[in-house]
Amino acid sequence: MKNRAKFLAYPYLVWMAIFIVIPLFLVLFYSLTKGNIHDPSSLSFSLESYARVFEVNYLKVIWKSFKLAFISTLFCFVLGYPVALIISTVKAKYKSILLMFFLVPIWMNFLLRTYAWMSILSPNGFINRLLSFLGLPTLSIMPGQTAVVLGMIYNFLPFMVLPIYTVLSKIDRSVIEAAMDLGANKIRTFFNVIFPLTVPGIISGITMVFMPAVSTFVISRLLGGNKELLIGNLIEQQFTVQRDWHFGSALSIILMIMILISMAVMSKFESDNDNGGAPTW
Amino acid sequence: MSKKIIELNNVTKRYNDVTAVDNINLYIRENEFITLLGPSGCGKTTTLRMIGGFEEPDEGDILFDGVRINDVPPYKRNINTVFQRYALFTHLNVYENIAFGLRIKKVPKDEMDRRIKRMLKLVELEGFETRHVDSLSGGQQQRVAIARALVNEPKVLLLDEPLGALDLKLRKEMQIELMNMQKNVGITFIYVTHDQEEALTMSDTVVVMNKGIIQQVGTPVDIYNEPENRFVADFIGESNIIEGIMHEDYLVEFSGRKFKCLDKGFQQNEPVDVVIRPEDIDITEPDKGLIQGVVTSVVFKGVHYEMMVEGGGFEYMIQSTDMQPVGVNVGLTFEPEDIHVMKRGS
């Protein structure tokens, strides 16, 4: 049965090879060479592009990308966890309505949503017009880091809520009853039982928010103007404006490695938590 | 007799329009092994959950040591529960699962160690301290769940079909183990099951429930030998339940003739239900039997044969080691004490 169905995976394997594996190798190849990409004979092995990544200007951009992604992820977690908890505890008929609130924005185009935020946050946008209508001083959050972080939180929040909600809703009610039976009040039950059991959901939520946040270039360009350059913008520029594919590839590889390291740290954290007999209080 | 530790007075619980528990009265004595027995949906688990504090009765009172505990939350009750599917904490190892309640009570480290060691010994899981609960077999998980509850030294332990998920052999072993544990630790056990054999094996007292109503309370022997109504007779073991008429004290008529019996206190010519257990009927030569009949089916059951004999306007089930083939004319005999007369009820 298992073996006979194997051929069903072939179309996807072909797809994966053409659109994932080969491009990855191409990126790796460009990052390790220099010369004119339109003239294969001019290409030679070089680590020059990687050396450039470590110039202070570029390190600053990478640092800022990780910082903003971290802040957004943190906010998504702080905002998202209670929401997931509420959705998982309300009655079934309200559950689907609440979930809809989180899903409807995803149905809309990502770019459109970000444009909407532009019109809310921009100097002449909704918020400032409201403030000046009320006779209050206006804010200048856009373009700027605050606007970028707000955009990230808005766009990625559902990806934090959904995995946590899924794990929460799978927790056996009797486990919670067992905790209360053993003397834990509601707060204790949450911190000693529910929260530790949702760690896998938190990990995947963080992953699903942090990864797109750290590599985004649309949010930072639309809401950050030209002054909030992130690593995603830097890579995009290398391919579209600067036409330096070698440097763009090197940046991509570095970004990928850093994301992989972050994920490895996260999963280490998860497995530590997992086999822990150690008390958490 | 020891004192009453838990009392249920006129307790009713409804879920929307469905009455799960209907005005029950029950008391449980200290150190008793009491079993709530009944088919699924009879209200036995709801009753247990109300004692545990997971449900609040709509009417009536639950008393613990004479104090009303209707609205006391579970974490403030001196009662612990072994849940149906164990409900172990999968993020903690065996030691930490058992330590959970003790840590909340802030029991000192050395005392906690000592009590957990003793529990692990009791449930025969020494050396399993650091094992992950997911890596244990069903029976082992069950024993961790029991240890986790017992280590808190509750006055009452509630067990909600704790052996339901185990295979037959393990279940029998655990039944004996649980009985021994209960005697060793001297804690009141309230046990819920739908398995009548389990209930009869383990309990001091059996409470038979159906449709949210208590049908009968008694010792296993009483419940088996003196069922109070058709439901109990039918639910506990195999029964021949025949409609009959009670002519006078000690004389009952069924299957077309009158029999001497040991029952009294009925009205003259009152319609009754008569119970005769299949193992109490003997097969003899046709002319020596009280009832004559013909064998209609034979099934080999291991220890005995189960035969259906049609005679006297009824199909009798007989369990016997003497097999008579299908189609043979036989006689059925039984003693007056094998006849049990019940009021005709629902």
Blueprint (SSEs and pairs):
The complex is a heterodimer of chains A (281) and B (346).
Chain A: H1 10-31, E1 33-34, E2 44-45, H2 48-53, H3 56-89, H4 92-107, H5 110-121, H6 126-133, H7 145-170, H8 173-181, H9 186-197, H10 199-215, H11 218-224, H12 231-240, H13 245-274
Antiparallel strand pairs in A: 1-2
Chain B: E1 4-15, E2 18-29, E3 33-37, H1 44-52, E4 59-64, E5 67-68, E6 79-82, H2 94-104, H3 109-122, H4 138-150, E7 156-160, H5 168-185, E8 188-193, H6 196-202, E9 205-210, E10 213-218, H7 220-225, H8 230-235, E11 240-248, E12 251-254, E13 257-260, E14 270-276, E15 282-284, E16 291-300, E17 305-311, E18 314-320, E19 329-333, E20 340-343
Parallel strand pairs in B: 3-8, 3-9, 6-7, 7-8
Antiparallel strand pairs in B: 1-2, 1-4, 4-5, 9-10, 11-12, 11-14, 12-13, 14-20, 15-19, 16-17, 16-19, 17-18
Helix pairs in contact in B: 2-4, 3-4
Shape of chain B: elongated
Mean pLDDT of chain A: 88
Number of strands of chain A: 2
Biggest beta sheet attributes of chain B:
6 strands, mixed
Which descriptor suits the 3D outline of chain A? globular
Contiguous low-pLDDT stretches of chain A (5 residues minimum) are: 274-281
Q: In which range does the helix fraction of chain B lie?
A: 10-25%
How many H/I helical runs of chain B? Answer: 8
Order of helices and strands of chain A: HEEHHHHHHHHHHHH
- Give the CA-CA distance, first to last residue of chain B: 34 Å
Radius of gyration from the alpha-carbon trace of chain B, in angstroms: 24 Å
Sketch the major β-sheet of chain A: 2 strands, antiparallel
Q: Hey, roughly how much beta strand do the residues of chain B contain?
A: 35-45%
Oligomer: heterodimer
CATH class of chain A: Mainly Alpha
Beta-strand content of chain A = under 5%
User: Mean pLDDT across all residues of chain B, rounded?
Assistant: 91
What's the number of domains of chain A? 1
Overall structural domain count of chain B: 2
Task: Please provide a written account of the structure.
The complex is a heterodimer of chains A (281) and B (346). By secondary structure, chain A is mainly α. Chain A has a single domain (56-274), classed as MetI-like fold (Orthogonal Bundle), CATH 1.10.3720.10. Chain A has 13 helices and two strands. A two-stranded antiparallel sheet of chain A has the order 1-2. In chain A, helix 7 crosses helix 11 (218-224) and helix 8 crosses helix 9. The radius of gyration of chain A is 23 Å and the shape is globular. Chain B contains eight helices and 20 strands. Chain B has helices spanning 44-52, 94-104, 109-122, 138-150, 168-185, 196-202, 220-225, 230-235; strands spanning 4-15, 18-29, 33-37, 59-64, 67-68, 79-82, 156-160, 188-193, 205-210, 213-218, 240-248, 251-254, 257-260, 270-276, 282-284, 291-300, 305-311, 314-320, 329-333, 340-343. In chain B, helix 2 (94-104) packs parallel to helix 4 (138-150) and helix 3 (109-122) packs across helix 4 (138-150). The model of chain B has no long low-confidence stretch (mean pLDDT 91). In chain B, helix 5 links the parallel strand 7 and strand 8.
